[in-house]
Write a structure and sequence with these properties.
heterodimer, A: mainly alpha, 2 helices, 37% helix, 0% strand, B: alpha+beta, two-stranded antiparallel ribbon, globular
């Protein structure tokens, strides 16, 4: 059974015409499992948002320094 | 294949009507004008449309497989395989609200959940006279009157009523039309109350009787609510029409179509400013609330103008 997100991502990305009976059963079982998880109150896998490539932000490379957090103490 | 125009040649007088066009006209003539005559469509409309089409097709294929004698699991496989093939090129924008709720993943989940829920459905597909299942039943029938501008002497063009019924079923010794809906709002009592009186359901009751030449008492509404974290929610409701109610709907239709002809003849489709807040707010509210001189600019910014071939056309064959 396609039990995790990677398995189902892979299966769903295959050419649907090439899917075997077992692949199809795995896709169906995955969605039934998701339903069971939701019914039990656990969160199912959320669809991925298309957020573009993930890039680490290096402030120093950009010539920027993170601002020192301003501590505002009450009464000071 | 190019569909025929639903308008009389060289005019905006529409002679072929379906529940969508009629519903828009009845709600607000300006809404009808923007959508049907001009072809303005919200930018995310295609997501809702595609999702609805594929959902209906998947359930239809399951129904056909069951009608043909296949078991539940096999019919689910047929339906899901074909669905995956059809949507393999579909990449809706997942960052939009429409795309979050309506995308390939939520679609497959919604279909499988529906099929499992109604695995032992007491509603059975009716067999048509030719032995085929009464699923995705297209109808097109002529009324005994037409636009007033058309000469009555030569028989003239008459009005056509067209559409597609998802399924006709036998349920608890009654024959009913089944209509499937997807929604992102809760299909509670308030949701179900909207179907009576209701333009679409009245037309479908009449159409079912014409197609099958039998008594159809009303429509079963199978509503599916798409949810992202909770299990999808399915609610079944019923709406019935007496013969007198159907007669009344047809009488009213005569006045509505006469009115539509007047608007088209004059070339002016007035706003119904009491309908702007209906169903969560009209899609054109942000346009109609502007000064008439700048409306075109707002339409161009928020909508796409479909080419004539892509516009809603009741004569388009599925």
């Amino acid at each position: 059974m396609a039990s995790d997100q990677n398995d189902i991502d892979l299966l769903m990305s295959l050419d649907p015409l090439q899917l075997t009976k077992m692949d199809l059963d795995a896709i169906i079982a995955y969605h039934r499992n998701q339903r069971a998880l939701r019914e039990s109150g656990a969160r199912g896998a959320k669809p991925k948002k298309d957020q573009g490539p993930s890039v680490a932000l290096d402030l120093e490379k950009l010539g920027l320094k993170p601002a020192t957090p301003k501590i505002n103490r009450r009464g000071l | 294949m190019t569909a025929l125009s639903p308008f009389l040649e060289g005019t905006f007088i529409q002679y072929a009507w379906d529940s969508t066009c009629l519903g828009l006209l009845k709600t607000c003539p300006r809404l009808y004008y923007y959508t049907i005559i001009c072809g303005w469509s919200p930018k995310d409309e295609s997501i809702h449309l595609r999702f609805g089409i594929e959902y209906h097709k998947a359930l239809e294929e399951y129904d056909d497989a069951r009608f043909g004698g296949r078991g539940h699991e096999e019919a689910v496989r047929v339906s899901i395989r074909n669905l995956l093939v059809r949507i393999s090129d579909w990449n809706p924008d997942l960052s939009s609200r429409a795309g979050q709720y309506k995308n390939p993943r939520t679609l497959v989940q919604l279909v499988i959940d529906y099929l499992d829920r109604y695995k032992d459905d007491p509603a059975k597909t009716v067999k048509r006279e030719d032995g085929s299942p009464a699923t995705e039943v297209s109808f097109r029938f002529e009324l005994d009157w037409g636009p007033q501008c058309v000469s009555k002497v030569d028989g003239g063009t008459r009005y056509l009523l067209c559409g597609h019924l998802d399924r006709i079923v036998d349920f608890n010794d009654q024959t009913l039309v089944m209509d499937r809906k997807t929604t992102t709002t809760t299909p509670g009592p308030y949701y179900m109350d909207q179907w009576s009186p209701n333009n679409q359901m009245s037309l479908y009751t009449i159409a079912g009787q014409v197609v099958l030449n039998t008594v159809i008492k009303g429509v079963v509404i199978d509503a599916a609510q798409v949810l992202l974290e909770k299990p999808n929610n399915y609610v079944r409701g019923f709406t019935y029409r007496t013969p007198a109610q159907s007669e009344e709907w047809l009488t009213d239709l005569r006045y509505w179509l006469w009115q539509a002809e007047q608007y088209a003849t004059i070339g002016y489709w007035p706003q119904n400013d009491t309908a702007c807040g209906m169903y969560g707010g009209c899609r054109f509210r942000g346009v109609c609330s502007r000064d008439p001189s700048v409306r075109e600019r707002f339409l161009e910014a928020d909508f796409v103008k479909l080419d004539p071939e892509s516009r809603w056309n009741p004569l388009k064959v599925r």
